[in-house]
Write a structure and sequence with these properties.
Elements: H1 3-6, H2 9-14, E1 17-19, E2 22-26, H3 27-34, H4 38-47, E3 57-59, H5 62-72, E4 85-87, H6 89-95, H7 102-149
Antiparallel strand pairs: 1-2, 2-4, 3-4
Length: about 160
Amino acid sequence: MNEKALIPEDFIITKIYFIRGEKVMLDRDLAELYDVETKNLKRQVRRNIDRFPEDFMFELTNDEFENLRCQIGTSSWGGSRYPPLAFTEQGVAQLSGVLKSDRAIKVREFVINNLPVMAKLFFLVRVLEKLSIVGLRFTFSSALRRKKNEPEWVGYLLQTP
């Protein structure tokens, strides 16, 4: 199988979320990547929980889950009903070692060979977010500066009949 067809870059970039100050991928997206059901992925993680410390994987709180659902636009009848597991970069790499499907083996090889590229993608998303924040601050401060420099009218307005 061609590695490029295995994991499209745009798939990974669009599936990285910023939660608790960490760049993470959610269990359902990783299940899709590894071609397993989300419940099976979670089952394997729970069976191997000692391999996933808090800095590798964590479960979203109900508030975080609700916020994420609002951002993604999940329908009320579809999607997960339980808070997902979020995996950091190290957790994604560790996950590839506990899944047993044929696809998981191929993805594991891909992850091992391309972890530096994936790390760069995580870093790129972080940089883009910072640039976006800086851009918003610049736009806001520019608008304030323009408003501050507008002349104030002194006197009376004459109305014509």
